[in-house]
Amino acid sequence: xxxxxxxxxxxxxxxxxxxxxxxxxxxxxxxxxxxxxxxxxxxxxxxxxxxxxxxxxxxxxxxxxxxxxxxxxxxxxxxxxxxxxxxxxxxxxxxxxxxxxxxxxxxxxxxxxxxxxxxxxxxxxxxxxxxxxxxxxxxxxxxxxxxxxxxxxxxxxxxxxxxxxxxxxxxxxxxxxxxxxxxxxxxxxxxxxxxxxxxxxxxxxxxxxxxxxxxxxxxxxxxxxxxxxxxxxxxxxxxxxxxxxxxxxxxxxxxxxxxxxxxxxxxxxx
Amino acid sequence: xxxxxxxxxxxxxxxxxxxxxxxxxxxxxxxxxxxxxxxxxxxxxxxxxxxxxxxxxxxxxxxxxxxxxxxxxxxxxxxxxxxxxxxxxxxxxxxxxxxxxxxxxxxxxxxxxxxxxxxxxxxxxxxxxxxxxxxxxxxxxxxxxxxxxxx
Lengths: 270, 151
Known about the structure:
heterodimer, A: about 270 residues, alpha+beta, Glutaredoxin, 13 helices, globular, B: about 150 residues, mainly alpha, de novo design (two linked rop proteins), two-stranded antiparallel ribbon, elongated
């Protein structure tokens, strides 16, 4: 008996003990277990069935883009797609390496659309500004898109998880492009593209962009690394609208088309 | 008993995090939000497998063992209780490590990861209390058996 008084908890939780003695839990346990299964499966399927890339309308009253970014494609293309992206974002890397090649061959090179890349460096990425500088400086020598591709394909060589001094691996990537490296280094050291990047950043904030990549396809704003089929569907819908002579044209597209058509530099069309 | 329920809830949380990481739920994107920062960091995979998938395996394991522990045989029960404490202890340590990474390395908090960490903590506490109960019960039974022999 003296032993028992030293272990008062024996009596405090009889349920565990008695249920073990009696040989298993009662029906309440199985009901609770079943409830968790039902709720869990329900919540998961609800999450999975939600549309992944929810497009929202671009506010048509927004002023046209002031920042230029970088353009690929024909100035006479019917539609311009604007991408806000962060070089260090894995989602952007996935889009650039897996989806963008298809977009270039099927939509850009065929003259249907033109892509405009807008830097949107996120503060959570340590090395993304260096990458934006590197791309901008390669762009000064007409090789923005080549550098863009190198940077995204090799994110793991220069990102914040790989190194705290990204300039060296980025310069190595730039070295493969056959550009003047003295000029490139001077440009990177002077952070020459900074003002242009800040301008594209401001455009993103003005449009309420809060994740990367985000695409503005005509009058639609679509977040996330959309797969090619989704991208194509959105493009087709906008092209159909243009073809139908939709008078309520989105704010960005027409003014940008004008801008790109003028011979003023900034952008490197290829 | 409670351990099985908590493990089942944890299983769904881990399943959600895995599906999210693999891109079946939501979109892989970088956002000002914290969950994306955590899920796209290099610590979101462990030995090449998404951390959420490790969680799924862990919760399934605990669930199976806890359900096995519902069997009436006492000789099995003590072994299972020991196993559960070891398993949930490892789970707790791993969760602590992940929470440390979120707070002090990634500097972002993913709410479902925190919920999983809380569930893992609960599992350990529940398993530990259960082990104490089973041990005490065994002692009590042994005492009673001794008394009845003497008597």
